[in-house]
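Notebook B, p. 112. Complex prediction, attempt 2.
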Amino acid sequence: MALRSDNTGFGSITKSLHWVMAALFISVFSVGWYMDFLPLGMAKLEWMSRHKSLGVTVLMLAVLRILWRLYEPTPAALGKHSIERLAAKLGHLGLYAVMIAMPLTGWMMSSAANFPVSVFGLFTLPNLVAPDQGLFETLRTAHFILSWAIVVLVLGHVAAALKHHFIDRDATLRRMLPASGDQDGDIPASNTAKENS
Amino acid sequence: MSMNFKTSLRPLAAGLVASMLALSAPAQAADQWNVEDGDSAIAFTGTQLGAEFNGAFEDFSASIAFSPDDLAGSSVEVLIDIASVNTQNADRDSQIVSADWFNAGEWPTAKFVTKSFSEVAPGSYQAVADLTIRDVTKEVTLPFDLVINGTEAEATGSVTIKRTDFGVGQGQWADVSQVGDDVTISITIKASK
């Protein structure tokens, strides 16, 4: 499997980023909700610490991913209708936006609360804004709303992938799977070519 | 004989008065200083989840008698109002004063009382003092720099203490993995005489 993507398939770097970030999305989201329900105590602080560290990891990977995406070709969308391709485009843009905005609002929230972010205890991030209770409340609301925006975007993303796989029966989902590209037979070349034309 | 007695007694009496004055002199010789509240601060830096945060106790009062040439007669007593803590986070501030931490309901004031001063270098001193937080008193050594310009003086210094030495952080909070044990207290005191 090539490191870089080409016009029909994803390279191993993009696939790795995709799946690692998918796992991180689920982890950070679950930890975020879990810690929110914990009473103030050691456990809550420990989970907050993990949430922040994982969130910053998402931010770093998101930056790498966007830079990498700008550098390599992107496989053509397989949607049959232009409206589908437009929806896919908007959905992906939305996902890129939240993978930056979500950690950033969290980081700013921590700064506004005078609660600096340590990443796995390895290093501490600089404060983005000065401590400000009012700003903290605003950012917390933004972080909360974004969490639901992520739910909508991710569910839409998964539903679209399943629709491509089970209804359209195209390679959209399969070409993002780790093994695809190893066996070219997995992706019906003729089908792919037709949809790209 | 009687004449001799009187004449010999006089210098003795004079010497006695002089020595009594000399004994009481040190307490009066050190200059009294008034703290300028607006320019003075008792701040601290702690760690939470591995990252440093800072705060300050905004209300405190200090009685300062200090003269560089009379360290033995110098003394400082500082009373700190625990409830005046400000870490720019209302949730954290309410935690700090709560029973598990400073328990300001029971022990509203922290106290710093010097026992001795020594000069380390010109303009640089060390104060050995009893620091009382909650119901625990421990000796701490505060190194500080002092600049005196006529009737104005500024002292800056810092000392790192362990919060658990003073029982700050009870129960689960005695664990120092998430809220660090070391707390650095930094003082900036501007005073005039």
